[in-house]
Amino acid sequence: MGHASSDRSLPESIILDFGDDGWVFLDPGTYLATFNEVVNIPLDLMALARPRSSLIRSGVSLHTAVWDPGYQGRSQALLIVHNSDGFHIQHNARLMQMVFFRLVQPLQRGYEGRYQGERP
Ligand SMILES: Nc1ccn([C@H]2C[C@H](O)[C@@H](COP(=O)(O)OP(=O)(O)OP(=O)(O)O)O2)c(=O)n1
């Protein structure tokens, strides 16, 4: 990741498939989770997210950035399986909870970065 946006390239990733039973086993390591929900953040809100405590209690952490006012898209989070026994996860399992903050005044122009409208 360089200083300029043009000097930023993301690493390749491999798509993991859930089994016929709807579950997948994750070995210890790092994973990018794509959420089902498409979010539309209004111009007078921003959001942060926290993992469900059940993830933490299972030795799994979830990392997120900031949801900017005006962002629309299907977000992603970094899931890290620290548990040396790995972790079983089911398709559509709920992973995190978003916390919304109302701005003192709405922005005139919302988010216009490279992730706007991703995975509609
Ligand atoms: N876990 C998260 C957190 C945020 N977002 C979305 C909402 C943000 O509005 C958008 C952009 O996030 P950043 O501003 O942190 O992105 P960058 O600074 O990396 O890129 P850019 O400046 O090009 O937007 O990504 C996401 O998809 N997944």
From TrEMBL:
Q: Which UniProt keywords apply?
A: Hydrolase, Nucleotide metabolism
Highest rank taxon of the organism: Eukaryota
Q: Which SUPFAM superfamilies match?
A: dUTPase-like (SSF51283)
Q: Name one Pfam family in it.
A: DCD
Molecular function terms, GO-annotated: dCTP deaminase activity
* Biological process annotations from GO: dUTP biosynthetic process
Q: Does the keyword Hydrolase apply?
A: yes
- What CDD domains does the annotation carry? trimeric_dUTPase
| Record's protein name | Probable deoxyuridine 5'-triphosphate nucleotidohydrolase
- Please give the organism: Geodia barretti
